[in-house]
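New to this. Please check this fold:
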Amino acid sequence: MSKPIVAVTMGDPAGIGPEITLLAVQAPEVRDRVKLVVIGDLERLREASRILASAGRWKGAAPELRAIERLEDARFEDGVIDVLDLHNVPAGLPWGQVTREAGRAAFEYVAKAVDLAVNRTADAIATAPINKEAWKLAGVKYPGHTEALAELSGSPSSAMMLVNGRLRVVHVTTHVSLRQAIELATTERVLERIRLTHRSLEQFGLRNPRIAVAGLNPHAGEGGLFGDEDERQIRPAVEQARAEGVDCTGPLPPDSVYARAAGGEFDAVIAMYHDQGHIAIKMLGFDTGINVTLGLPILRTSVDHGTAFDIAGKGVAREKSMIASILVAADFLSGDASEHNAQQEETV
C-alpha cells in the first residue's frame, strides 16, 4: 500500500518553522508513515540546515535539500528532502523579527498547500507556525490559519481541535475578547460545534464519540447562582444534540471536565473560549500539543505553539509538536483516530 503524501509548510521564515520542519521531516518515525514534501524557500531552509548542523542537531550527515517545481517531481528518497521552492524569502532576512516579507511568504506557503490538497495532489497538509502580526503587515486579510484555510478551501464552517495525548478540545470561540465570547456562545453555535466534532471524529474512525461540553461560568453556573448562560444558552444545545443521537454530556464544570476527558471518560471536550481550552491542552505538555482543523474538505494538522522568535535561528527549537502533527495526520488518513494517543504519550 502506497504511503500518503503530506505537504509541510515551513511557516514564518523568521521563526523556528524552518528548523523544526527540517528536523521533523527527517525523523525516522515520520518517514516510516508518510511521504513528505516541504513547501517553503530553498535558500532559507539551507540556512536553517547549516544552523542545525552548527548546533549538532543532525544525527549523522545533514540531509540534501532538493528543489522541485511541482509536487509530482518529488522522489521521496532517503537522505533527501524535496522542497517545493517558492523563491519568496529575501536574502538576509533577519531571524526573530516581525516583517512584512516574512508574513507574505508564510501565507503563500499555506495557499500553495491548500491548493495541492484541494486538488488531491497531497493527501494532507501539516503547517509550521505563522505570525499573525506579520500577516497583518503583509496585508493578509485573515487573522490566522483557521480562517485562511476555511476560505481558501471553500468551507462554510470550521473549527480548531487541539489534541494532546488523550485530550481533544474543540473551541466554540477563539480569538475574541471574553465579552464577545459570552455573546457568541449561543445555542446555535454550541450545537454546530457539537455536530461538527461528532461528525469529524466519526470520519476519522472514532465510532460513537463521547463528547463533553464545558460550561461557560464557574461550576457551569451552579444552577443559575453564577450566571444563567449555561442553562439558557448551552444546555438546550446539549439536549438537541442528544435528541439527534449524539453521545453528549453537559454543561459540565470547566474546572474538572478536562481532567475527566484526559483520564478517558470522554473523547472530546467542547470549550467555550480560547484560554479555557488552551490552558488544559498546554498543561499536558507545551510542545506536544497539535491542532487539527475540523470542517475542511482537506486534512490539516499543525503545531500548537508559535514562532518563538526569541530562539529562532539558534538551532535549539524542539520538533516534538511538528512530528506529532504529521503522525496524527498519518493516523487520521489511515482511519484510526485513537492510534495517536499511544504515540503521543511516548513523546510527553
Remarks:
- Residues 12 and 23 are 16 Å apart (CA to CA).
